[in-house]
Amino acid sequence: MTPGPIDFYFDYLSPYAYFAWRRIPALAARFQRELKIHPVVFGKLLDHWGQLGPAEIPPKSKWLQSYCLRYAALNEFEFNPPKYHPFNPLAALRLSLQEVCGAQQHLVIQSIFAAGWSQGKDLGDLPTLISILESAGIDAAVIAGKINNADVKQLLIEETENAIALGVFGVPTMILDGQFFWGNDQLEHIELLLESNDPLDLEKLELLGSRPRKIDRKAVRK
Hints:
Layout: E1 6-10, H1 15-21, H2 24-30, E2 35-39, H3 42-49, H4 58-74, H5 90-95, H6 98-101, H7 105-117, H8 126-135, H9 140-144, H10 150-166, E3 173-176, E4 179-182, H11 187-194, H12 202-209
Parallel strand pairs: 1-2
Antiparallel strand pairs: 1-3, 3-4
């Protein structure tokens, strides 16, 4: 039986997605798992599930910056976030659809992520994106010419809607053998599952999930 793929859901708005991307292709290749890549619109996930993004909560945004700087230092790479944040990620996400960039998908994603989160490029600016891809040896004009096509726009909408239907609530999310992993700090857990050493007790998980709620936080009053 052929092992199932690793599904990777991401948006360039998330530094955590960049951190996960730096490791997930090699991990998939090591365990001979297909890596299926899904660009999705993070803002639509937040809207659907009624959440705020980390950068929308001032103290969380400050914590995020310190975490990212520590993580990059520990993993020995440059952390220099995009020139503007948040930015409009739609052009970058559409460029990253396999139907748009084909066999160059990994190179497109790697180039955009690194330029944005390690080189401080403006990922919301199409000419900048084209320049990034051209520097990587990609014929960017050809694929950039596709991103305003109605069918390409619809593909990104469908990727996002399909993710929501599966229960994806944030980025990065990795789905493997029916298990959800959210965040760049989940790579070790994914590796345990790939090694058939996952300590997760599925029966206990089911029991915990069935426990009833006693109160809703909105009902709490002083």
